[in-house]
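The instructor's notes for this session suggest beginning with a concrete chain rather than abstract definitions. Hand out the sequence below and ask the class to guess, before any prediction is shown, which regions might be ordered.
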Amino acid sequence: MDTQRLTWLPNAITLARLLAVPVLAVLAWSGMHGAFAVLLLPALASDVLDGWLARRLDATTAFGAALDSVADILLVLVMVYAIWPLHPYVYREHGWPIIAVVVIWVIAHAASLLRYGRLASFHTHLIRAGIFAFSLFAVVLFLFGFVPWMLYLAAAICALGAVEHFVMLALVPRWTPNLHGGIPQALQLRRSQKRDGAG
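After discussion, reveal the predicted structure:
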């Protein structure tokens, strides 16, 4: 198989996830719980698939990384929104960790825009773990019911990911796509970018 002909596929999958977001929002707003859950599962699976394919096909690009970041943010936000019309008691009884994490991450993304003029492309293990934990909580919620400890665990991991995000923003002087290595990689990149600037 000529993999060069498939380099468009990862971005197409990411774009499909992006296009699923408004559909998911309408389904949640309409109270279509089953349809929302059915569409949510492949949307979440696409987040794993597009990155894996991009690496496999050697098709990672700055555009793809930025598109993936936007799609991830919007998909998480539509899950946060969908909890209200589909499971409002979760917000009434346990809403504060969701709201706190959303506020922290809104500030984190605003800081990215101020720092780089665009969203940061940090795809670290901790940040991905936070997205995975919240996604798993949402899938269990929409398919089976509310499990409080899953929400609090996801919120804690997401908050730690936000702290890592702020530290990396402070360390990395210039926007760099696809940073996976967390703070150690950010320190290494800071040293190399400072050397390049000095040279």
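Then share the key points. The chain has two domains: 1-86, 88-199. Residues 121 and 177 are 5 Å apart (CA to CA).
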